[in-house]
Design brief:
The chain has 125 residues and is α/β, with parallel strands linked by helices. The protein has a single domain, classed as Rossmann fold (3-Layer(aba) Sandwich), CATH 3.40.50. Helices cover 44% and strands 22% of the residues. It contains four helices and four strands, in the order βαβαβαβα. It has a four-stranded parallel beta sheet, with helices on both faces. The longest helix has 22 residues. The chain is globular and about 35 Å long.
Length: 125
């Protein structure tokens, strides 16, 4: 079996990220979860930059939940654009559309995340 796609997950709630993870396994693994609200605010541009530099092996990309506005996402994308993976390639960035869970519920969120990951990393579910 090939290695899972390694992602930094940025979301509003750690508990939601952890509930989603089993649906993505064994193809995708969160190697870090940064949060905006719960259980505490761990996301900041500085923390994201630190993780991109410090994690070994490098993550394959970053996935951000729909609870972030355009300005926050632009800020994340700027941080990511300044960094490279250990092999010199760029990190991939996946954004879950705002309102996905509200419009489609938890199952719809899982389906959307799987679709986005399949497009970005050629994950076959």
């Amino acid at each position: 079996m090939s290695q899972p796609t390694r992602l930094i997950c940025i979301g509003a709630h750690r508990s939601l990220a952890l509930k989603l993870q089993p649906s993505l396994s064994p193809h995708v693994s969160y190697i870090a979860i940064l949060t905006k609200i719960e259980p505490s605010k761990t996301y900041s541009p500085e923390n994201l930059a630190l993780l991109l530099d410090a994690l070994h092996p490098s993550p394959d990309g970053v996935i951000v939940g729909g609870g972030f506005g355009d300005e926050e996402v632009d800020e994340m994308m700027k941080v990511i654009a300044l960094k490279k993976r250990e092999d010199g390639t760029s990190f991939k960035f996946i954004r879950v559309p705002v309102g996905t869970i509200e419009a489609s519920g938890p199952e719809g969120l899982v389906n959307k995340v799987k679709e986005l990951l399949a497009d970005a990393f050629a994950v076959q579910w």
